[in-house]
Design brief:
Layout lengths: L1 H28 L2 H24 L6 H25 L5 H25 L9 H4 L9 H25 L6 H15 L13 E3 L3 H7 L3 E4 L4 E4 L8 H12 L5 H14 L3 H22 L1 H9 L3 H16 L5 H14 L12 H12 L3
């Protein structure tokens, strides 16, 4: 009985310590200036740099292997649970011990996730770094930015057609994304990206059905790209995921940083990929306030651009699955829990930053 009491007491001490750590993380994260000055630009910047040195040279995604091992472990545990349940070998002690382990593991993962990257959700916005005023946009603002994006999309696509440009192999594309950030660094020194750790996702086929084009692994510092999607999506996706590596955790922020990188470069493939994505975001927002104007802008796209959009829609249609609403609901709640109250539409909020950028600099 004394041994059991000591074990129980030790467990409670561990739980209290871990909860205290979470509490301290929450206090620190509540101050965006602390996060920006101490964590994002110093602690995280140095730590992520180290992770990219350790894992960046590996030709495959170490993070994906890690996820795969976790999935295998979970399936094995589930099989053992089912076997014991069938044989009626479960008792109160087993449930208590298992519950304690699960709670402890969950808390540990939460703490590590935040220390390794998650605190970045609370940093100052990229708009603050650029002194942009992200006031409420109205229909007039949306029409102006949509008109500019229409011009950029058509111009960049026409240039690609005239150049007979083709999309490079994945590794070459990743190198060109790094070059984009190298050129961007001249304008925005805080967007320096070295060394690179950009990999093709091992779960690309899975991603096609579950709706992700890329993701960042905070435990290994790697950015994974789903290279099985239509090629014209990949350049902007690569820039978006690199932005996550640089500590811009919110999707709106990563979209805007990705835009700065793609359009500050001299690579037309990246221009087109970014402007097309932003055109779609802006068109969707404009549709809610003026559907006629939104449709009119869409009609003015070049036939080659319309062909790409049609290809994307067909791709999404082919990979639609019945679990999609559940996945979107779950991911939307994850975003809301991490300082992005608009959930899945957080990606679209990049248009507010783009409008503010245009009002300050007179260009996009």
């Amino acid at each position: 009985m004394q041994i059991r009491n000591k074990i129980t007491k030790r467990r409670w001490v561990w739980i209290v310590i871990l909860i205290l750590v979470i509490f301290l993380i929450k206090i620190f994260s509540a101050h965006s200036r602390w996060v920006e000055v101490v964590y994002s630009t110093k602690v995280y910047a140095a730590f992520s740099f180290l992770l990219r040195i350790i894992f960046g040279w590996v030709p495959f995604s170490v993070g994906d292997i890690l996820y795969l091992l976790v999935i295998v472990w979970f399936i094995w545990k589930l099989w053992r649970f089912s076997a014991k349940l069938f044989r009626r070998k479960l008792n109160r002690k087993w449930f208590v011990n298992t519950g304690y382990r699960l709670v402890t593991i969950a808390i540990f993962v939460y703490i590590i996730f935040n220390i390794f990257w998650g605190i970045n959700y609370n940093r100052k916005e990229i708009a603050a770094q650029l002194n942009l005023k992200t006031d409420k946009r109205d229909a007039a603002d949306l029409k102006i930015i949509e008109s500019l994006l229409l011009q950029k999309v058509n111009e960049s696509k026409l240039a690609l057609v005239n150049q007979h440009a083709s999309y490079p192999a994945n590794k070459e594309l990743f190198k060109r994304a790094v070059v984009c950030y190298g050129q961007t660094e001249k304008l925005y020194p805080f967007l320096s990206y070295k060394p690179r750790s950009l990999k093709s996702s091992m779960f690309g086929l899975f991603g096609n059905y579950f709706g992700f084009t890329g993701y960042y692994n905070p435990f290994t510092g790697e950015a994974q790209i789903n290279t099985l999607v239509p090629k014209f999506i990949l350049p902007y996706t690569a820039c978006h995921e690199i932005a996550h590596q640089l500590g811009y955790a919110k999707e709106e922020e990563a979209n805007f940083v990705g835009y700065l990188a793609a359009t500050s470069s001299s690579d037309t493939l990246f221009h087109y990929s970014a402007y097309l994505d932003l055109f779609v975001y802006a068109n969707r927002q404009l549709f809610y306030v003026d559907s006629v104007a939104a449709k009119d802008f869409a009609k003015q796209l070049l036939p080659e651009v319309k062909t790409d959009i049609k290809e994307l829609r067909e791709f999404l249609r082919r990979h639609k699955n019945p679990l999609e609403p559940v996945i979107r609901w779950a991911y939307g709640n994850y975003l809301r829990a991490n300082q992005q109250p608009k959930g899945m539409t957080s990606y679209d909020e990049v248009i507010a930053d783009l409008i503010a950028f245009y009002k300050k600099y007179g260009r996009i």
